[in-house]
């Protein structure tokens, strides 16, 4: 398998269209079609279901897609390792939604101004999903709050990962304005918890804190805007870092209760280095020298 063929394959899978993939790759459509068919012939299997103009991955294509992404990531990692000087190339950064909104806008603008040759790709998701993507080489690094299990003393990172502490967030329980004062879990009304999907550390910490009470239904929402609106309407309680509440131009009428302080880490694979990631770390943590793994 040629890396160029795998890149074409992954681009078609992402765009679900030969036409859009060809435009993105700056190739003619016939070349993209020929390379995909050649890959299918070489592997002896169909990789795409052709539904009109839409290209959908077959089960075999899904399997190859995972391997192809890792192979392309390793190839890029090798290039980065052999070019330790000027930051350049692609840097795939993951982030929690809250961190992307409250902590990253100014540093990323500064980073782009200083290192325009770096193509920074930012994606957001809950912490556990982001850590899995770093392990799978789908991301180069991520900003997360790993779940530290109090029962085991784990810091939430396995031996394949290393983390650098960057920010400390005040994690708060967000309550409707009319909610009585809260001193402990027993004071919280029996409303559902509005939070992100499973894998969100903040959600898990809130449920841990509420655990002495009866099991609580979780209302899964996709943004802090939706979470806060739901709480303001009196339909739920929520969980969020205080830095997100501070972003509201017109503060909602809410009540908050401090749960705990949580550290956000910049996590990379142990031993992974690139000039682009080191440059980003220097922008995010200018007082900390970049340490070797």
TrEMBL record:
InterPro entries membership: LysR_HTH_N (IPR000847), LysR_subst-bd (IPR005119), WH-like_DNA-bd_sf (IPR036388), WH_DNA-bd_sf (IPR036390)
Annotated Gene3D superfamilies: 3.40.190.290, Winged helix-like DNA-binding domain superfamily/Winged helix DNA-binding domain
This protein's UniProt keywords: DNA-binding, Transcription, Transcription regulation
Residue span, HTH lysR-type domain: 1-58
Pfam families in UniProt: HTH_1, LysR_substrate
GO molecular function: DNA-binding transcription factor activity; transcription cis-regulatory region binding
Family stated for the protein in its record: Belongs to the LysR transcriptional regulatory family.
Protein name: LysR family transcriptional regulator
Protein species of origin: Variovorax terrae
